[in-house]
Design goal:
Blueprint lengths: L9 E9 L5 H11 L3 E13 L2 E7 L2 H15 L3 E4 L5 H11 L6 E3 L17 H8 L5 E2 L3 H8 L9 H9 L5 E5 L7 E6 L4 E6 L10 H14 L4 H17 L16
Parallel strand pairs: 1-2, 1-4, 4-5, 5-6, 6-7
Antiparallel strand pairs: 2-3, 7-8, 8-9
The structure holds pyridoxal-5'-phosphate (PLP).
């Protein structure tokens, strides 16, 4: 524990709300609490969501997003930022502009589609993600579907991970973590800055209750960076955290339950 009264590192998530509490802002704040940092939120969109999928989604006005960001940054300050669901081109561009002024590391989870196939980003926003958001990322964390959406690059085996990472790096993030969890065989993620390369392997858990995995991983990376860890160490620790959270994912409702932050 920290000495009483000493402030923890501060981490800001800019993302959507999941009413079911499994992904989005709710997963981000749970991850941050579990990892001992102070979590703060800029809500970009509100979803009506449960274990069966997303029943509705409403974007907040750009003004409301800007105001939340300014309130947090101008007074409290941030030591890392994480972005998740940004919904529209207008919001992607506004958020990219806001975070371009921070010195804090930024983890961009380029959220496209939920596990149930519900769109969380308009197709018209993809170009803004490529040209405005990725260039201001310290670490981008696409999964294989997001790699295809962003670069057209299809990853069929582990050998494709490095060229796919190069295709994402071409848009300007300092590091990319490609999440290869859906590859056949062993689950392997690739982290690279184009120079150094790390392959992160984890035992595959036969657990379907994995809602919120991507949000949790990106928030754990941001929490590590806020504590001052270098990117490879922050990503390695985040991977360990999310692997435990997946192992303990639990059934809730009739569909896919959430990963667990209390293990
Ligand atoms: N809902 C929100 C608000 C999210 O940000 C995300 C993922 O980033 C999801 C749902 C999807 O979560 P999953 O794909 O783990 O079901």
């Amino acid at each position: 524990m920290r000495p009483a009264g000493q402030a923890p590192p501060r981490v800001l998530t800019v993302a959507g709300s999941d009413s079911g509490g499994g992904a989005g802002i709710q997963a981000d704040l749970k991850t941050m609490l579990a990892l001992g940092v102070h979590g703060m939120s800029v809500i970009t969109a509100v979803t009506a969501q449960n274990s069966l999928g997303v029943q509705g989604a409403w974007e907040l006005p750009v003004e409301a997003v800007r105001a939340q960001y300014r309130s947090v940054v101008d007074d409290i300050g941030v030591q890392a930022v994480k972005t998740g669901m940004l919904a529209s081109a207008e919001l992607v561009e506004a958020v990219a502009e806001l975070i371009s002024t921070t010195d804090a590391p930024v983890v961009v989870d380029p959220v496209g589609v939920s596990k149930h196939g519900d769109p969380l980003l308009a197709a018209s926003a993809l170009d803004s993600v490529r040209t405005r958001l990725l260039p201001v990322a310290t670490v981008a964390t696409p999964n294989l579907d997001e790699v295809v959406q962003l670069t057209g690059f299809e990853v069929a085996s582990e050998a494709d991970l490095r060229p796919a990472a190069e295709a994402v790096l071409a848009y300007g993030p300092r590091w990319v973590l490609i999440k290869g969890g859906h590859l056949p065989g062993e689950a392997v993620d690739l982290l690279t800055d184009g120079d150094q390369e790390f392959r992160l392997r984890a035992p595959r858990h036969d657990n379907r209750h994995t809602h919120g995995t991507g949000c949790t991983l990106a928030s754990a990376v941001a929490s590590g960076l806020a504590k001052g860890l270098p990117v490879p160490e922050a990503v390695t620790a985040a991977k360990e955290y999310v692997t435990g959270a997946i192992a303990h994912g639990f059934a809730l409702g009739a569909g896919i339950g959430p990963v667990d932050h209390g293990w």
